[in-house]
Request: fold
Amino acid sequence: MFKLKVKTGDSVLIRVGKDRGKTGKVLRVFPREGRLLVEGRNLVKKHVRPRRAGGKGQRIEVPSPMPVARVMLVCPSCQKATRVAVQRTPEGRRERHCKKCQAVIP
Ligand SMILES: [Zn+2]
Reply:
């Protein structure tokens, strides 16, 4: 399966859409869909029905998954939005590098 360069816990900059220019933390990735969930971003209003008869329904805002192509990874060492290089170490591990400062991104 195609592996995404962004993973849970990463900080990303949103480049397209209503949250463009904002950063956020990745809560979940959906590799099969090529989408990710960013904390507090791409919010949609969800209508919640009342739980009991006579109770009140509400509209709550929840994040919805957006395409990975909308975001760029923010490098934890140089704090810039960057592209990512993926390399295999001699031991066969997968290692991500920042294309701007070359630092290894955990
Ligand atoms: Zn960097």
